[in-house]
Write a structure and sequence with these properties.
- With 116 residues, the protein is mostly helical.
- It has 2 domains: 32 residues; 81 residues, Cytochrome Bc1 Complex, Chain D, domain 2.
- The protein has 5 helices and no strands.
- Helix 4 crosses helix 5.
- It is elongated and about 70 Å long.
- The structure holds heme C.
- Heme C binds next to helix 3, helix 4 and helix 5.
């Protein structure tokens, strides 16, 4: 009898673990799909441009995904900024850049903003 109970327990553990891993695998895709109005390829193209610019010009202080703690408060990725706030502060920092670059960086910043 003990053997059977052990097998049942092991089965339960594996099934639960599978569920957790499955849920985890689904998660990031849903977060990344925040802007459904953009076609997937267009979004990926802009994100790649935005990431490159952010790494070049912003990651020194914010790290690649905005996780670096800031002296004046939480890291960028935890500031729960709205789309409008992101767009405004990115435009301010990229004043002379073409609109496409502003959009690209704003989209990238939004992609790592947590809790949105
Ligand atoms: C020299 C360091 C430095 C660089 C480079 C830098 N930042 Fe920041 N950034 C900061 C600090 C420090 C804060 C926090 C300021 C505050 O709390 O008001 C901040 C805040 C922000 C915020 C949040 C503003 C808010 O309202 O909370 C955004 C968005 C942001 N930065 C975007 C960028 C972008 C985009 C770039 C690249 C163009 C960039 N930053 C480059 C240091 C930097």
């Amino acid at each position: 009898m003990r053997g059977a109970r052990k097998t049942a327990l092991v089965t339960i553990i594996f099934v639960s673990l599978g569920g957790v891993l499955f849920a985890y695998g689904q998660g990031p895709k849903q977060v990344a799909g925040a802007d459904t109005s953009l076609a997937k390829e267009e979004r990926e193209r802009l994100l790649a441009i935005g990431k490159k610019l952010f790494v070049e010009r912003c990651a020194k202080c914010h790290d690649e995904r905005g996780d670096k703690p800031l002296g004046s408060g939480p890291p960028l990725s935890e500031r729960k900024l709205s789309d409008g706030e992101i767009a405004r502060s990115v435009s301010g920092r990229f004043k002379d850049a073409p609109d496409e670059q502003k959009r690209a960086v704003a989209l990238y910043v939004r992609s790592f903003m947590k809790g949105k």
